Amino acid sequence: MRLTILGGGGFRVPLVYGALLGDRAEGRVTRVVLHDLDPARLTAVTRVLAEQAAGVPDAPEVIATTDLDEALRGADFVFSAIRVGGLQGRADDERVALAHGVLGQETVGAGGIAYGLRTVPVAVDIARRVARLAPDAWVINFTNPAGLVTEAMSRHLGERVIGICDSPVGLGRRIARVLGANPGEAWIDYVGLNHLGWVRGLRVAGRDELPRLLADPVLLGSFEEGRLFGVDWLRSLGAIPNEYLHYYYFNREAVHAYRQAEKTRGAFLLDQQAGFYERAARADGSALAAWDRTRAEREATYMAENRETAGAGEREADDLSGGYEKVALALMRAVARDERTTLILNVRNQGTLHALDADAVIEVPCLVDANGAHPVAVAPLPEHATGLVCAVKGVERMVLAAAGAGSRATAVKAFALHPLVDSVNVARRLMEDYAGVHPGLAYLK
């Protein structure tokens, strides 16, 4: 089976390949094609993978190419993990937004809109090429903003594109762990959009254990979300929000913390990964060891400003091992081998959330089999959550409309309508400044 990874020079690719090395079942991936626009990054990541595969019998063959059509032709699965504009683009997204006093995070608020406007045209081109060159392939989208990009691609690939995120999985794992349950045996009632969802129940052997957690302030405050949001707020909500909702519920504090930080997250990763790629290119050292050190630092500093604002402390050791690669491979195995499973994924709504239309991509538990991912019916969200989901989905639709028409005015509307951008004038200035630093936005007229 052939797996193509777009963004194959990306830092997290070794996580995927490392997971593939442990798969010895029939029908496993035997060839991995890495595609990237940067040959130097491809070379560095290929060196890491070669060290990972050393001594592993029948390790998947690795091929690297800068030719997109060559990479897609004959693929059975395509992992799309691109970053249009690179980490410099992310750092610019953050810097411009913070200069105007609004959040610049890469998927939330102004930064997410800017990133989406750059990424959607590229993602749509990829979707069209997949439909032409590998019509039977399944596309698993890692690219952020994951829900928005998956929806853009679904307009050309239908149900054959599925978005993934490890954030809901990590949240469910933490809740199960604090309740003393096996995460693999728990049903997580989770619903929302990517980076905008809530756990409303966690069932073990048919019994919902979440009320027990919410009723115990000591237990509730013992894990990351309890410390991040505060016990009183979680009990008031009656649910456990995805960590990214901290940007909404504590927006002023988050913006203040990011403006006070020595570097934004994007600027930190830009410098950190530049050092890794430089070290990995040297013939006199271990590329894998350099990658391991860099990854450990990356995971430990994730959402550090938010945790500092909330006094949440350091991340727990169990949360430093990533997880998105496990979700992706579980999804791929379920489809390729009909190994039926349940995963929280980004898929078309299909009537699951009545407040949104059938084609809106949402993030919910899905039953996965050889025919793809099928969203599970969920109870309606409370009004406050429905309002936020509908508002953000409306912004995503404005981004898609702006990208489709090349309309700068519609892009300004997307900025202005986002709940975390509080002024039409700020929206206009954001658009002007983003256009000034991002060549990839030149198509907006």
What is the residue-mean pLDDT, rounded to a whole number?
A: 93
Number of DSSP helices?
20
Low-confidence stretches: none
Radius of gyration based on Cα positions? 21 Å
Strand content: 15-25%
Please explain how this structure is put together.
- By secondary structure, the protein is of the alpha/beta class.
- It has helices spanning 13-21, 39-53, 68-72, 86-99, 109-133, 146-157, 167-178, 210-214, 217-220, 224-229, 231-237, 246-249, 251-260, 265-280, 287-300, 304-310, 324-337, 383-405, 408-417, 424-437, and strands spanning 2-6, 31-35, 61-65, 77-80, 138-141, 161-163, 186-193, 196-204, 207-208, 240-241, 341-348, 361-369, 372-375.
- The strands form three sheets. A six-stranded parallel sheet has the order 3-2-1-4-5-6, with helices on both faces. Strands 7, 8, 9 and 10 form a four-stranded antiparallel sheet that branches. A three-stranded antiparallel sheet has the order 11-12-13.
- The mean pLDDT is 93.
